[in-house]
Amino acid sequence: MEASVLKRQEVVAEIFLILAEFYKYPTEDFYNNIINGDVDKQLAELFKAVNYELETPQFSFWVRDFKGLRAEYSSSFLGITAPFAVPVESAYKVWTNDTSFQIPIANSKGYVMGDSALHIMHLFEHFQLQIPEEYAQMPDHLTILLELYGFIIKERSLQQCKVFLKDHFDWLGDFEEVLKKVDKSKFYIYVVDVLKKVIREEKKYLEKL
Question: Cα(138)–Cα(90) distance, rounded to whole angstroms?
Fold first, then answer.
C-alpha cells in the first residue's frame, strides 16, 4: 500500500477516535480540551489533511459548563428522563432479520443486543480485540463503532472500510431525530451533525476507489 494512503488512513483513524470521545461520559480533561478550542483546532487540521470539505468545527461554541455538559449527556443518552436517545445501533434497527427467531421482539425496534451487536462481537473476536467491560451489553455503542472503524481503517482493506461504514452508520439519521426531541441537547445534536458530515466525506472518498 502506498505511503500516502497509509498516512491518510492514520489521519482518518485519529478523527474517528476523537469523535468517539464525545459519546463517552464527559471527563474534565476532555471538557477542557473542548472549551479551550483544542478539539476544534485539531479536527480542523485533520479535516484539511484528508481533504474533507468541512468547516472548522465549533464545539467550543456549543459546549456548556462542565456540570451542565454532564447533565446534558445524562439527559440525552442515559435515560435519566424521557425522552432520550440511546447511542446504540441495535436500538434503531429491527432486532433481528433471522426468520428462525420466533419471539415477540424479533421484528421490533428499540432493543439492544440485536443483529448489529452480534456482528460487532464477531468482529472483535475475529480481530482478537477485547470489548471494554462497560460496553459488554451494548457492543454496538457509538463509541465502540467509531473506535472500531479507527482500527479497521489502519489494519484492513479499504473495501472492508466501505462495507463497515455502510452497514453500521446508516442509523444516525434516526438517532438524530430522537435526540432532537430531548430537552437541552443542543450540544450533542451538533456533535451528531458533525459526525454525519464526517461519515459522508469518508464515504465520498471510498466511493472513488
Answer: 8
3-state secondary structure (DSSP) of residue 2: coil
Which ranges of the chain have pLDDT less than 70? 1-3, 99-102, 104, 106
- The 8-class DSSP code of residue 171 comes to T
Q: What is the pLDDT of residues 82-113, one digit of tens each?
A: 899 999 999 999 988 776 666 767 677 888 99
- DSSP conformation letters of 74-122: IIIII-SSSS----BGGGGS-S---TT--STTTT-SS-SSSHHHHHHHH
Model confidence pLDDT, tens digit, residues 153-166? 998 888 999 999 99
Cβ atoms of 188 and 68 closer than 8 Å:
no
Dihedral sign from CA coordinates of 168, 170, 174, 176: positive
As a whole number of angstroms, the distance between CA 62 and CA 198 comes to: 18
Contacts of residue 39, defined as CB under 8 A and 6 or more positions apart, other chains included, come to 18, 33, 57, 59, 60
Count CB atoms within 10 A of the CB of residue 197: 16
Q: Which residue has the cell 436500538?
A: 91
